[in-house]
Design goal:
By secondary structure, the chain is an alpha/beta fold. It has helices at about 5-15, 25-35, 40-60, 75-90, 100-105, 125-155, 160-170, 190-205, 230-245, 280-285, 330-340, 355-365, 385-400, 420-430, 435-440, 450-465, 475-485, 495, 500-510, and strands at about 65-70, 95-100, 180, 205-210, 225-230, 255-260, 265, 290, 305, 310-315, 320, 345-350, 375-380, 445-450. The strands form 3 sheets. Strands 12-6-4-3-2-1-14-13 form an 8-stranded parallel beta sheet. Strands 5-7-11 form a 3-stranded mixed beta sheet, with no helix packed on it. A 3-stranded antiparallel beta sheet has the order 8-10-9, with no helix packed on it. Strand 3 (about 180), helix 8 (about 190-205) and strand 4 form a beta-alpha-beta unit. The chain is globular. About 35% of the residues are buried.
């Protein structure tokens, strides 16, 4: 409904109650507009439709890829979306990412933890709810500013401005955007995955990202010691997520299946196989085995047969089984195809470096079977982007016969090479990486998992160095406040950002002229009006 229709509906409701004469219809309409989403499920349904629309747009044109940044607090997510609206005028194709790594490192009651699924499962849905609480508050704040401007226009008799503001209210774009939320390896078996998925969806998540590692052996995607599970074990968890979406009425919910097989050389168990060539047999075919005869079977050995041969998989003292070297890419391709054939919507291939052709080489094979396969890709801070791309340029120049004698490949991170032609070409490749990878490697969504973890540390370091050093208070004023004012950062008026003006609006609704409001002439936030 339009703003005027909302007022009319509220007026009808109030008119049906003789004792509600002190309730103002326009105030009710404003409160309703400021609280567009009543529940997390409303958010999940709304944002799922956005992602489905964006996926279809990407299928039609790979230039229409989407992006997100990982956010570990509601305020961080809120400020990110406010900034996007300020700079670009729309939130289209911009999402939030919820990183299990950052939940473990920053949101666990145990304190900082490694990314090994040791944090409380409830901390993930709690962060989803927190993020959407802050995004909904950003809506309320922005609309409150429009309402105040509308009141001023009316008071001054400026009907043209009042009409413009009314249209701005009708066309207001919410700060509520999709969240791709990390459910790790499901925090247990399929039932545990289902229960956690429900909590995450109820909090507002429209997209769940689940990985094929063993839940009780889970490692960060960019660390060693990763252990995968057979496909049927993983697919049971994928189905659990789908059932959770369907039970809650989020029929368009998105499942992102992540494979860590490229960097995982171990499995905890041998897959169950009924017949040659089934999915269990294909998984077992990657095991590193020794051919033996019956006489060589030792105490406690595990053996399998294939094509009439007796094989003994190589087993570690940890009771884990090894895959053959060099099979990671093949296992990734099989993981991805199997996931897409069993209910997944998007893929995530965790790689050890940001190399477009490496990613594309696997996606090309996947698309031979599933032509519209699409990826979510981790533009990870675990990669040394500067070194990786300088080395890629060095190698390309070498292959092309170009003179690289001025460069030491092992030292390309050095500041000595900043500003050189090689460094400039590398930076240009980094700048266009997302566009190029979307076009060549099927990447629908680019995200950075941990950016705000790093920006918080960097900005705090800069402030501490200045404030506790010779600059003193100037360190804060010059490095923070002056920039906030001149760059139009919303939270420079931190009282407004925290909801003080919204509270004043409510006081006026509730108490009329008797309201004791905080935003009077003596409010120091008025110093920032200019």
């Amino acid at each position: 409904m339009t703003y005027q229709q909302q007022i009319g509906t509220a007026r009808q409701t109030i008119g049906g109650h003789a004792t509600w004469g002190g309730i103002d219809a326009e105030s009710v309409a404003r409160m309703r507009l400021q609280n567009r989403f009543q529940t997390g499920l409303d958010i999940a349904r709304y944002t799922a439709s956005i992602m489905r629309r964006d996926m279809a747009a990407y299928d039609a044109d790979p230039a229409a890829y989407t992006q997100s940044l990982g956010c570990w607090h509601g305020f961080i997510g809120q400020q990110k979306i406010i900034s996007i609206k300020k700079h670009f005028g729309t939130t289209d194709r911009r999402y939030l990412y919820l990183s299990g790594w950052m939940v473990a490192a920053l949101r666990s009651e145990f304190g900082p933890l490694p990314d090994q699924s040791m944090h409380e499962k409830t901390s993930v849905p709690a962060l989803i709810e927190e993020l959407y609480t802050f995004l909904r508050q950003a809506d309320a704040r922005e609309l409150s500013l429009l309402f105040r401007e509308l009141d001023k226009a009316r008071e001054s008799g400026n009907e043209v401005e009042a009409q413009r503001l009314t249209q701005a209210i009708d066309n207001h774009q919410t700060h509520v955007v999709p969240i791709i939320a990390d459910i790790d390896a499901g925090f247990g078996n399929a039932e545990a995955t289902y229960l956690l998925a429900k909590k995450m969806i109820e909090a507002g998540a429209c997209a769940l990202q689940i990985e094929n590692q063993v839940s009780d052996e889970k490692q960060c995607g960019h660390q060693d010691g990763k252990v995968t599970v057979p496909h049927e074990d993983f697919l049971a968890k994928v189905r659990a997520c789908r059932y959770a979406f369907l039970e809650l009425g989020v029929d368009d919910g998105i499942i992102v299946t992540r494979t860590d097989s490229l960097g995982a050389g171990l499995t905890k168990q041998i897959a169950f196989s009924k017949e040659p060539g089934d999915i269990g047999d294909q998984y077992n075919a990657f095991l590193d085995c020794d051919e033996i005869d019956v006489a060589q079977v030792g105490n406690g050995d595990v053996v399998i047969t294939r094509e009439g041969k007796l094989l003994r998989p190589k087993r570690l003292p940890s009771n884990l089984f090894q895959f053959r070297e060099g099979t990671g890419a093949d296992r990734c391709v099989l993981d991805c195809i199997t996931s897409l054939q069993n209910g997944a919507d998007l893929l995530w291939i965790e790689t050890e470096k940001p190399h477009i052709e490496q990613i594309a080489s696997m996606v090309d094979r996947i698309r031979e079977v599933v032509p519209n396969a699409k990826l979510v890709y981790n533009n990870s801070p675990s990669f040394n982007w500067t070194l990786n791309f300088r080395q890629q340029v060095f190698d390309a120049w070498t292959q092309a016969g170009k003179d690289v004698s001025a460069y030491d490949r092992a030292r390309l991170m050095s500041v000595d090479y900043d500003g050189t032609p090689l460094a400039e070409e590398a930076d240009e490749r980094i700048r266009t990486f997302q566009k190029d990878a979307a076009a060549r490697a099927g990447i629908f969504h680019h995200l950075i998992t941990l950016p705000t973890y790093h920006t918080a540390a960097l900005s705090t370091d800069n402030l501490a160095k200045a404030y506790f050093g010779d600059e003193g208070m100037l360190g804060y004023v010059k490095g923070v406040q002056r920039r906030e004012i001149r760059e139009g950062i919303a939270c420079v008026k931190h009282q407004n950002m925290s909801g003080s003006d919204i509270g004043d609006d409510h006081k006026e609704y509730f108490a009329g002229e008797a309201a004791l409001k905080a935003g009077g002439v003596h409010n120091t936030m008025n110093q920032f009006a200019a």
